[in-house]
Amino acid sequence: MKAITLTFWPCSAVLTVLGGVLVMFAMTLSIPLIFALIFQETTIELFLQSIAICAATGMALIALFRGSKKEMIPRDGFMLVVLVWGVLPAFGGLPLMLHIEGLSFTDAYFESVSALTTTGATVIEGLDHLPISINVWRHFMVLLGGMGILVLTVAILPILGVGGSQIYKAETPGPMKEEKLTPRISETARGLWLVYFAISLACWLGYWAAGMSWWDGFMHMCSTMGLGGFSAYDASFAYFDSPAIEIVAIIFMTLAGVNFALYFIAWRNRSARVIWTNLEARSYFYLMLASVLGISVFLYVKGVYDDPLTALRYAAFNVVSIATTTGYASTDYAQWPIFAPIYMLLLCGIATCAGSTGGGIKMIRLILILKQARNELIRIVHPRAVVPVKFGRSIIEPAVLQSILGFLVVYLLAICLGTLVLLFTGLDPVTAFTAVIASINNTGPGLGEVGPAGNYKGLSDLQTWVCSSLMLLGRLELMSVLVLFVPHFWRH
Amino acid sequence: MNILILGAGRVGESVAESLVSENNNITIVDTDPSRLQELQARLDLRVVVGNGIQPSVLEQAGAADADMLIACAANDETNLVACKVAHERFNLPRTIARMRSPEFVENDPLISRDSGFGVDHIVCPEQIVTDYIEKLIDYPEALQVLEFAGGMLNLIAVRAIEGSPLVKHRLGEIPSLVPACELRVVAIFRNESVLLDLDGDSTIEHGDEVFVLAASKDSHDVLVAMHNTSDPVRKLVIAGGGNVGLRLARSIANNHRLKMIEPRKPRCEYLASQLPSQVLILQGDATDARLLEEERVNETDMFLALTNDDETNIMSALLAKQMGAAKVLAIVNRKAYADLVQGTQIDVALSPAHAAIGSFLTYVRRGNVVAVHSLRRGTAEALEGIVLGDRKSSRMAQRRVDQIKLPKGASIGAIVRKQASDPEDADQGNAVQVLMPHHDTVIEAGDHVVIFVSNKKDIYLVEKLFQVEASYL
Fold first, then answer.
1. Which end of chain B has less neighbouring CB within 10 Å, N or C?
2. pLDDT one-digit tens code per residue, A32-51
3. Architecture category of domain B128-227 in CATH
């Protein structure tokens, strides 16, 4: 009997690729399975089940839509990205639901979105008592989401062809994605993942050398490099209470906040010059350094810590962690004078570079918008001046600047609306506002109920869904998602 | 000498004009017949119409018998290929290429004879003009500053001003008036003609154009002695963002406050992308009085009119001067205009083709000439040569200065001598010494001698001084 194929569907090409991504995702589930085998945990069976469900769904999609003659058109890229990022968390949440009794679908989806978008907000309490393999899966999703699942797909599956470049653009953060590092997009994607893996390996070794067990090292490496912020312990980094481990974390969080394309170029040129000369990376480093020193002095002067070195230790770790949108905590910084935590939360919206694994509006957008503002002032004094916005030696097209302005407006709108909805559902103002900021910037902990000492467990289902969607919006940089809601997108 | 010139543009014309008057056989190749006719009517040379990179055209132009090819077409590509063809097909002994791109430099294997494009020497007129203007920005009192002996020695042209230390004094008094610096007045032009027979009793008068040779480190003192001080140039306005404007802006942007006026929008954007952001690019017409006023030209130290259009340059420079710019400079290509603006409000009128000609002449001069600067619109010349041989084979070696037969109006300006290697301080082995010669100074073999020739017709006599001839007794 001939298999039924639904080739007439308008987006059958997209669904085929989705099937492929699901099969690949099923394969990544073998990593926690390996851990389960090593530690002889009871979770072996549930991981096998998850793999089976995930792979079967993927193969079914491929079988149904395989015969499609339709090529993927560029705009399909957006649909694919949103579809993948919307559907995968449901499968990612499977092992969690199967293991933790009473974990609702809403919470499992939230936890999984939080991991894949590298947010690091959690609804699970008693992390210390979870099996290692379950924790490994939570963390491994952060590593996957960091560089982008579809970028990984583009790197591995050459079948995506031209459409791959559109997918890459829709998933990679940053305002300027026209520049390809290599002639073929699949090679670019492969290069970025290789660099990512190489630095991750160094991070793993670093943690191990600083005194973590090899499996703790692996897990925290995942959430450090993805700038996620999950920890295998409720107390986060306060559990280790080790300056050496904190230093390793600070180094690799800072490194992961830089555009990975720069590492790729630096490795190709055999010279790190490109990183130091890049305006975005330099601004990021300087902002980090100034913030850490400023907050240390602030804490010392305010008398939070009696000893300047202790102030520096806690300020450095927590400021870097929040500013890079990671979200680890080595102390309950919500108890610091309110200026510090609010400043750190605002920093997470702007600090990281485009093309890094961090969230927020990205440093480059801030730089370009500030330059634009400065140029407006120059134009008032010299009406005939030609002052295009420059980045390095190249002129930024007005179209790019307009798209950045549009992005910022939508970003602020999303924050306002999200806060309003959370307030409407009865959250207190501080929790509502900081939960929105922490979600849309993929940071994790906010203040109040969702602060470093608490978690997102107390939120109602509706509130949890609002936060989940804000994380997805933030990770895909709003526009890739919102374009699906524009009627023009669907007209032929 | 048989010289083949490729390209009859401004540079080509100017080189041809200069060389024809020195008894050379010039053939000039260009694709534009009307342009060539014009040249042929005015100058005594042969013209060939055609594309100079084609072997047949070069052959027709006499490449087989030519001693030198000067490729100064507008395109770098044309010049490179022409030199290659001339070298490979005709084995032309000497090739000079005009290059706009700064990426090709002399002695690079990429352009050399063995493996590259067969170019012996590269001349970049835009860069020469840029250097020229940069010197004037460094020394705002000067009319022109030229380098000799690898930058150790400057030839400075300055307009003497009443009230400065040396004016209204005899040349003989100079050592007692400015004992700190050693300088030598090599020529004085009064009312556009040279004073012959300069000696210790000649005086410097107000308004004289004085040519002085001095060590580079003393240049500033020399200018003060003749012209009093002016403030250093900080604020500049450049009208015209062409090749020269861009090169100049790039090299001075970091220590000067710069505004550039350029009418074309795309060019403005290109300039903005190439220059650091402290340079303010203004889109507009350099002759637009309102724009100049808005941008406070009255407060600028120097206004540079560097567009491609003579009229625009002259008018905007005059406008800027009238509005109060401290010093104005205009690029003026046409000779008639250059004469016209002589002595007007425009402080310096500069002809790019003319400024560059010295570099071409350096390679044409016989004898061991290492630097040539054409002065006063080609009527005078200063050249630096190396004295070789001995008393028997050379007209200069081992002779006292007053024994050397110089043409009228020519004078020995300075001697640059390698310090006798002193075994006790070996690290000073490469040190050189600048001598201001007296009548009894003896010239040695190996000396670099700078000679100022006020009448171009006498150049061939000076060239002979630097030649080594076995037969000469």
1. C
2. 999 999 999 888 999 999 99
3. 2-Layer Sandwich (3.30)
